Amino acid sequence: MPIPVPLSGELRAVFGSPTQAVLLDSSPRSRVWRVGLEGGSRVIVKQIAEGGTSGPDGDARYAREVAALRLAARATRPAVAPALLATDAASRVMVLEHLDDLGAADDWMPGYAEALARLHALTGPADAGTLPAWSGPAAADAESFLALAAALDVPVPPRVPDELAGLIERLDPASHHALLHGDPCPGNDLRTAAGVRFVDFEQASLGNGLVELAYLRIGFPTCWCALSVAAAPLAEAEAVYRATWRGLTGREVPGDLVDACAGWLIRGDALVERAHRETVDHLARVPAEDFRWGDVSARERLVHRLGVVADLTRGHDRLHALGQLSSALAVRLLHRWPALRPLPAHSTRPWS
Q: In angstroms, rounded to a whole number, what is the distance separating the alpha carbons of residues 242 and 253?
């Protein structure tokens, strides 16, 4: 039986009754419909669902997405998110602007980077508290990463524990207030005639925009569709991001992109989909099993991230020893499991 569109009487009084409704693909944490209305217009109806390993957090996720969409609405000409047309908190329902997605393009990254910078630049210190602060790596992540090295019989340079402690301290989001999407993955970015717009803000937060710019280098760590970006388009996209941020704020992007990449490396939860995060130590699973998420395995994701951090830290004063360890771990993984594949190229977007 089709799931009925959850439009309350109040919402129907505003928009009319649906003439057509198509249930779209979405995560288990939400249901999304494309709804046709009388007169020929269309809207998107999204309902946040309960459940999952995190428990009954539907109200919190609904409130987070609504707050993020209202902050994102500050961007105009062009927008960076669909307009939030109406809400029904009792049913955790949002009615959103329908966007015509033009589909994939080989040169998608500059537009993506520009929209990401425009999103990040919308908020500042005055917005503290409107969304949760970004949750960065903690001491337990550092301990798990060191335990992984021990399990693989890779010696840990003496300076690494102190470097990891310093990294975690520098990644503290307290002094940063950029509007972070939370999951800026291919598929959550729609290419419209007016530019890229992001959808699905259930995990939005406030923090340092570099932790999302790092997605391009580190392989989209919260996404099933992990990707590898070649040097030339990567440099172009990062330059677009920095120029856009500078033009909007009048200052350089704060923080260190190397730190952001290293932060994603040591987080075992960045190897699995959201439903399985905060359940077990996923880095500890790597020596015994190569679990998959999408078309890419955990070991393949990890090898890519290790290589990125090793390359970035060769001349880095504060993370040089971590880079040495990353290089040695990558060699050990590839020696033990030589069939591991590189991540797919960034131009491959069959899901868009």
A: 6
Residue type (1 letter), 176:
H
Single pTM value for the model = 0.94
Contact yes or no for 255/131 (Cβ under 8 A): no
Q: Which class for 27: exposed (0-12), middle (13-18), buried (19 or more C-beta within 10 A)?
A: middle
Are 243 and 213 in contact by the 8 Å Cβ rule? The answer is no
Peptide bond into 78 cis (omega under 30): yes
Rg of the chain taking only CA atoms, in angstroms: 21
Distance CA 70, CA 315 (A): 42
| Tokens 């090793």 sit on residue | 310
pLDDT tens, residue by residue, 246-304: 999 999 999 999 999 999 999 999 998 877 888 789 999 999 999 988 889 999 999 99
Q: What's at 33, amino acid-wise? A: W
- Tally of CB atoms within 10 A around 215: 25
- Residue written as token pair 């015994």: 288
- Give the pLDDT of residue 54: 44
In angstroms, how far is CA 48 from the centroid of its own chain? 18
pLDDT tens string 96-145: 999 998 887 878 899 999 999 999 999 999 999 999 999 999 999 999 99
Contacts of 224 (CB under 8 A, 6+ apart): 185, 273, 293, 294, 295, 296
Length of the chain counted residue by residue: 352
Separation CA 147–CA 102 (nearest Å): 46
Rounded-to-integer distance, Cα 329 and Cα 154, Å: 7
38 by DSSP, 3-state: which?
Answer: coil
Query: For residue 276, what are the CA distances in angstroms to 237, 242, 285, 291?
Result: 31, 33, 13, 12
Beta bridge partners of 317: none
